[in-house]
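Milestone 3.1: sequence recovery, worked example.
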């Protein structure tokens, strides 16, 4: 009977050992997967940091382009104002000539020249107005690109940072569970070892006692 009881205890302990071993394998695997995911997320952060660095360079380029567009727009505005002023002067001169009651042939010729110049200035002024409009639209597009890029990168950084924090929390919990399970298994093994040792000592004492009685 004693032998059967001991064998049952041994079988029970072996089964428990197997279950605990399986649990440790599972926890270790989960820990490894979480660590890999954290590492992957950190590499993603590094990659994102490089993207942000490239974006910063792109932002600087766009700002420089924006500055040039401003300067070009100001120049075009000045040209437009200058041409408009010249056109107005020519128009006044043309009206003055038109009011003359005794315009000779040379005045008619000058009048035609002035009309041609006024028309040319008008066309140039319209062209410059179109260029100013295009530059304004280009500037607005650059501003939109900057805002969109900043927003996207900020959202991506925030999302990845939150994910890394969550993974690190999970990894910490898994490590704690792993350590607790390991400690529990060690204590269980130590207690069983001490128990078996005590039983062996007791059996030896019984055998010695019986042997002494036989003597």
């Amino acid at each position: 009977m004693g032998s059967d009881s001991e064998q049952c205890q041994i079988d029970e302990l072996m089964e428990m050992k197997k279950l605990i071993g399986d649990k440790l394998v599972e926890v270790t695997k989960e820990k490894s997967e979480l660590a890999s995911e954290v590492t992957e997320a950190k590499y993603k952060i590094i990659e994102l940091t490089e993207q942000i660095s490239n974006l910063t360079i792109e932002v600087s380029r766009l700002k420089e382009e924006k500055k040039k567009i401003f300067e070009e727009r100001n120049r075009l505005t000045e040209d437009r104002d200058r041409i408009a002023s010249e056109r107005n002067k020519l128009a006044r001169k043309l009206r003055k000539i038109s009011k003359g009651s005794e315009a000779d042939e040379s005045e008619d010729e000058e009048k035609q020249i002035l009309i041609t110049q006024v028309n040319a200035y008008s066309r140039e002024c319209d062209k410059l107005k179109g260029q100013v409009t295009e530059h304004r639209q280009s500037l607005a597009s650059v501003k939109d690109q900057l805002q969109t890029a900043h927003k996207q990168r900020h959202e991506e950084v925030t999302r990845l940072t939150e994910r890394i924090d969550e993974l690190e929390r999970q990894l910490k919990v898994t490590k704690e569970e792993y350590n607790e399970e390991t400690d529990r298994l060690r204590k269980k093994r130590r207690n069983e070892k001490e128990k078996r040792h005590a039983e062996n000592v007791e059996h030896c004492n019984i055998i010695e006692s019986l042997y002494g009685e036989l003597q």
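The mean pLDDT is 73. The chain has one domain: 2-214.
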